[in-house]
Amino acid sequence: MELRCGGVGSQAVGRRMDGDSRDGGGSCKDAGSEDYENLPTSASLSTHMTAGAMAGILEHSIMYPVDSVKTRMQSLNPDPRAQYTNVYGALRKIVRTEGFWRPLRGLNVMIMGAGPAHAMYFACYENMKRTLNDVFHHQGNSHLANGIAGSMATLLHDAVMNPAEVVKQRMQMYNSPHRSALSCVRTVWRTEGLGAFYRSYSTQLTMNIPFQSIHFITYEFLQEQVNPHRGYNPQSHIISGGLAGALAAAATTPLDVCKTLLNTQENVALNLANISGRLSGMANAFRTVYQLNGLPGYFKGMQARVIYQMPSTAISWSVYEFFKYFFTKHQLENRTPY
């Protein structure tokens, strides 16, 4: 499925986001290799934001049960009734002992955060990537530009997602006292204050900036290898997205363990570490993880994290690229006179 030359809107496709208005009268081969990701300027922001929101909602909705398992497997001192050896076994045990819907508790707050967060995330990435590529590697693809663009997009994404992550992870923990997102928000606000929703923000950024840099650089690199013309190719988006997510997830697992500890404030673990009050700060989280579990503690839940991130990023990129293609094609068809 491609925007082919000679068809509806083919000249409009030729107009690039970076302002390069190449002659639309080239050969079919030239138009076919035109980067479909470079959308018409007037439609780019709304298209990126809408496609990004759809990708974020679908990604987090589909993978949420695995995310619930990942949160529990990263517990530093789990309840004996909540100890798991693998993702599939954990899901079976949770459903059998806590009910069919238990792995989905907190999904509503995640959807509320994922939509706007991913809308800003992809829109910022696309626009920053285009701008920085012009600076670093004119009319080419610079891995440095992709990495910086991903890092900048993460700042916006995490500012929206961090409160949702705090609520979501507290609801996911075994024997959580929170039965609804609203009650969790009220309890955290009343007992810990507004700052609790951003207690792990610095750690989240410390984790997600390298994660997203690795993720975007790897994705764009793999796209150059398997989809050099950058046409709409679902298989290439799934493969590139999945491999990029898996590599980035494995590399940043230690930071994710620390983030989970800061978000959940796991009481039993903090008591064992003789920590009174609330744990804050990435450095303190790193020390606490090492104190309780040594070096292996930094890699708790890595299997679940990779199993979660690999299909998550594959879903996210394939959905995003599909809706970007769909909305762009629709806009171009509506602009073309008959």
Quick structural summary:
It is found in: Mitochondrion membrane. The chain is mainly alpha-helical. The protein contains 13 helices and no strands.
Main pleated-sheet profile: none
- The residue fraction in helices comes out at 55-70%
Instruction: State the end-to-end distance.
Output: 22 Å
Oligomeric form: single chain
Write the layout of secondary structure elements.
Elements: H1 10-13, H2 28-32, H3 41-73, H4 87-98, H5 107-136, H6 143-172, H7 181-192, H8 201-226, H9 234-251, H10 253-264, H11 267-272, H12 282-293, H13 302-335
What does this structure look like?
The structure is a single chain. The protein has 338 residues and is mainly α. Helix content is 69%, strand content 0%. It contains 13 helices and no strands. It has helices at 10-13, 28-32, 41-73, 87-98, 107-136, 143-172, 181-192, 201-226, 234-251, 253-264, 267-272, 282-293, 302-335. The chain starts with 9 loop residues before the first helix and ends with a helix.
Summarize this structure as a short list of keywords or feature phrases:
mainly alpha, 338 residues, 69% helix, 13 helices
